[in-house]
Amino acid sequence: MTDLSPSPATPARHRLLWPVMATMLIIGWSSGFVGIRFANEEASVFLLLFWRTLLSGLILLPFALAFGPGLRLRPVLSQMGFGVMAVFLYLGGFALAIEQRVPTGLVALISDLLPLAIAALSQPVLGERLSRRQWLGTAIAVGGVLIVSFDSLGLGTAPLWAYGLTVGSMLVFALASVLHKGRRSLHMPLHQSLCIHTLTGAALFGLCALAAGDGLRPPMTQEFAIGMAWLVLVATFATYSVYYTSLRLFPVAKVSAAIYLSPPVTMLWAWALFGEPLTPAMFAGLAVTLAGVWLTSRG
Hints:
Structural class: mainly alpha
Strand content: under 5%
Shape: globular
Number of domains: 1
Distance between the termini: 28 Å
Helix content: over 70%
Radius of gyration: 19 Å
């Protein structure tokens, strides 16, 4: 388990620490779209996720073995459980839902409600009670996400279980987040736990790719290579590291509130790199979301 005990260097001593980490988290979380956009044209979703998690795990493996405490069976099994929840079920659940033709806009909206689920779970699991101001900020941020996502919403024709899968995937990651912060009995450095998480996901995504008849051979194209580099270095290493480190230093609801800004920032990525249009509703939603995140995170 990654050490999530309070740090002696409290955030109060470093007023810029949270703004900097929140900015890194928002940019990293939203940047996953960029890598997927590059790589998804060349490979199926499960093959893409297999190579993303496999490369991430293999890069971290030598460091996990050489630095930090020796890997014992019980902590490794515990981390594998978190890998199943936070990597395989979360990423794979949304991928399968999209494959079953749940509209992408609806999947994105449900995924973006993750902070709301984390806020709701943090009180009974961690005892972190949100104030009225924070609940108001959460409601405002959700409203901003709805404004941003409005144009892309639709119900589609997917089977009913696929819609439930999107909600379940989001709730699984929310539960994994609060458990990850709450369980301090199995401490493990971040590079070791993330290595186990990603290799666990790789094994399961590989089985899914084989079952779907996709094989495991990666496309040997420039677009796929660029997408993988982005997904591994930015969307996995940078984002997960900042996310888990933030959970160690700050209240879980405060950390998760920053994720509300990922939809509008994702749309800015799409505009800058792929020429996708920006609408007045997107800017209005961004302003509303910023106000909600500020209320939730203030103090």
